[in-house]
Inverse folding.
DNA sequence: CCTAATATATCGGAAGCCAGGATATTGTGC
DNA sequence: GCACAATATCCTGGCTTCCGATATATTAGG
C-alpha cells in the first residue's frame, strides 16, 4: 500500500463536496469544476465509487427511481472529506513546487503565453 | 487515449527540470521537491522513464561508470518541458477548484490546522 | 572470504482505467 | 401500436500502469 488516492478518486470526491449526486451527475460536475480539464469516463466511475465506498470515504445516500431505473445518490463521509482536504493540499503543494522549479530554471512559458507582469 | 500524463510521470519530469539525473538521483529529487509527500518507487521509475523516452519527453543524456555499473543520466526535452508546464498548470487549477469547493461548503480544516489568516 | 550496505535495473502479478456493450425508458414519426 | 433514436445506468474484458520482490555488482567491515 502506498497510493493514498488516485486522481480520478480525487475528482469524484470533489464533485460530492456540495451534496449527494448520482452517476451522470458526478460526471457532469467533474467536467464543470475542472472546466473541461478532466473527462471522467463512465466506465471508470463505478469502479472508483466501489473502492471509495469500501474505504468509507463515500456512502449511499438514497435511491430514486428515474425513467424506470434506480438512481443511486452518493454522499461524502466525514472521513472522505478529511482525505480530500489533505489530498487537495498535497496536490496543490506539488504543482506549486513544479512551477517554482520551472521558473527558477528559466523559460516557464510556452509559445503564446503572457509574461510575468 | 485520454490520459495526458500519469502522476508519477509528472514528478519524474519535474525532477529533471534543473538538469540531467540518473535513476536514484531522480528518486531522491522527487522526495525532496515534494518534501516527502511523494515516494517514487524504483520499480515504477524505469517503466515510466521508458514511456517518457518513447514519447520524446525525456532522452538519454550520457552514461557514466559508477561503482562498476553504468549510470544513465536522463534529460528533459523541449517537448517534455512544454508538457510539464501545461500539466503543472492543470493540476494546480484542479487542486484550487477543489479547495474552493471545500471552502464554500464550510469546514475546510482538519483537526490541528491553522485558520485562514 | 563472508556478510551487510549501497546502487542499478528487471519482471511478474496486482490494481486501475476505460471502450464497448447490455439493458431500460421516453419521445417521435408513421 | 411499432420501429427507431435518444437518453441514462451500469458491467465486463482487456490493456496500461504501478510496485514488491528479486537479481546483479561494488565497497566496507570484520
Amino acid at each position: 500500500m502506498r497510493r493514498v488516492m488516485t486522481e480520478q478518486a480525487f475528482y469524484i470526491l470533489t464533485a460530492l463536496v456540495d451534496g449527494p449526486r448520482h452517476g451522470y451527475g458526478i460526471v457532469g460536475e467533474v467536467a464543470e469544476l475542472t472546466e473541461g480539464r478532466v473527462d471522467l469516463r463512465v466506465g471508470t466511475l463505478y469502479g472508483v465509487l466501489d473502492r471509495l465506498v469500501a474505504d468509507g470515504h463515500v456512502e449511499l445516500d438514497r435511491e430514486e427511481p428515474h425513467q424506470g431505473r434506480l438512481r443511486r445518490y452518493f454522499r461524502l463521509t466525514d472521513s472522505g472529506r478529511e482525505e480530500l482536504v489533505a489530498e487537495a493540499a498535497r496536490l496543490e503543494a506539488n504543482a506549486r513546487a513544479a512551477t517554482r522549479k520551472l521558473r527558477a530554471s528559466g523559460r516557464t512559458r510556452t509559445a503564446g503565453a503572457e509574461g510575468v507582469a
The longest helix of chain A spans residues 78-104.
